[in-house]
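Long-time lurker. I teach an intro course on protein structure, and each term I like to show students one example going from raw sequence to a predicted 3D structure in C-alpha cell notation. This year I'd like something fresh instead of my usual example. Would anyone be willing to generate the C-alpha cells for the chain below so I can use it in lecture? Attribution to the forum is fine with me.
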Amino acid sequence: MKKLFPLVLFVFFLVPSSGIQARNLWAFLTYATFNSPEGSYIETYLSVAANSVKFVKKDNGKYQATINILMTFKQENDIKAFKKYELNSSEIDDTLNTNFQFIDQQRFAIPNGTYDFEIQLADKNKTAPAVPYNQTIAIDFPADKPSFSGIELVKSYTKAPVATELTKSGYDLVPFSFTFYPENESKMIFYSELYNIGKSIGQDQKFLLAYFIESFESNVKLHAYSKVKKETPKEVNALLTEISIANLPSGNYNLVLEARNQQNEVVATKKMFFQRMNPAAQINLSDLGATEIANTFAEKITNADTLREYINSTYPVANGLEKAFIRESLKKADLKTMQQFLYGFWLNRDERNPELAWNFYKEQVYKVQVNFGTPVKKGYQTDRGRVYLQYGPPNTRSAQNMEPSNYPYEIWQYYTLNNNQRNKKFVFYSPDMVTSDFILLHSDATGEIMNPRWKIDLRNRIYETRDLQETQVINAWGDMQTDYWELPN
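-- Reply from a regular --
Happy to contribute to a lecture. Here you go:
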C-alpha cells in the first residue's frame, strides 16, 4: 500500500491535519535572530491552521479558537528565557469558514550561545495533551566581524506611524511564517540586517550587497533571480526587499545574502532554505540557443537516445529549471538542444572543466546503478541512488534485512551535508519484498521528508495504529533501528 507522508516544507511542523474536521493541531514555526545595541534577540513566527483547532461560541455570538503556548530556552537544563501565553484566533461568524491561518510573533532577548528550544502547543478547547517540539538554536553575533542577522520572510509591510517593539528600520512587518511558496505566491519579500561591515572594510569604503536564489542541491546561482547594489557602511545596514518568483519552477532553493568588499571578497554571508511549488512555470528554450558547444564533449555525443539518457541521469542534482526541462521538454528536444543543455548543465557547475565534472558524475551514476538499480528502476531513479548522487557516499551505512518485526531497512549517516548541515541521517526501507527497492522513509536533513512516525511505519509489517500522534514503538526482540539511528556504525 502506498503511504503518504507530510512533505517537510517548513522549519517546524506538528502532526498535520487530514481535513477540515482534523482532530490534531497543525502549526508551523520559523524564527530569525537579530542583534541590537541592547543585545541579541530571537523572534519566533508561528502560524496555526484554523481548520485544525476547535472554535467555541462566545457571548457575542461569534466563534473563537484559543491555543495554549509555552516556549522555553534552556542551557544544560537551566531555563534562560520562557513565555507562557494564550493565542486567540480572530472571531468568525461561521465555523465552516476556517480556511485561514492565524499568526503570532514573539521576541526573546537572549545573549550569544547555543540553546535547547522547546515549544509546547495545546488546543485549549480540546482534551488532547500538549504537543512538544525541540530544536537546538545557536545565536552568534561576533563583536568585531561583519555578520548578517537571520532572514525574516515577510508577507507584507507598511511604514510604521509609531515605532513599537516589533518595528524594524521604520517598518511594521507582517511575517510569512513558512519556508514554502505555493503557486499563488508570486514574490518573496524578506528582511535582514548586516552588522559591523565598517569594521571590516572601513567606514569610508563602499561595499556590494548581493542577494540571489541558488539551487539547494547544487548551489548553482540563478542569475535571473540575482541583484547587487552598492552600499555605504552604517551601524546597521538594513535590507527590506523582494524578488519576483512568478516563473521560479518547483524545487528546493536557498535564498543567499552576501556582503563583498572592493576586492570582491565575500566578508559575510547568510543562507535560508525554501521550497517552491509552481507547476505553471514556463521554460524558455531559446536561452539554450546561446550556449556554444563547438569542440566540446557534448558535441561529440551524437546518439540521441544516449544523450537523452545522460540528461535523465542528471535529474537528482538538477535545479528547478533544469528539472522542468527534463520533465517537460526532453522527450521532444532535438539533438543540438540536448547537447546545449548537457554542456550548459556542467558549465554552470564547473566553468574551468565542465567535461571533468561530467565524467566524475557519470562514474557515480554507474556506481548507483550497480548498487541500487532494481528490475523496475534505474539506480539514479531510486531514493538511495538519488541521495548518493546528491550528497555523495554516506559516512556510515547500517543495514538490516532479517529483523522479525521490521521491514528490511538501512540507516545512512552523513557527518556533513552541503557544508552547513551536521550529523544528518536517512532511513530507507523496503516494504516491497519483490523489487528490493528501498524507499526514503525519514530524514532529519533540510529539504528531505521528515516522518516522526518512521519507527511505526517501519514496523507496519506486523503492527498498525490509527493514532496519528503516536510516534514510538516498544522494542521487540532483535530490533536495532533505535541503536542504528542514535549510534550508527
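Some talking points for your students: The helical segments are 197-201, 304-313, 320-328, 335-347, 354-372, 383-391, 454-458, 481-486. The domain at 143-281 is CATH 2.60.40.3880 (Immunoglobulin-like).
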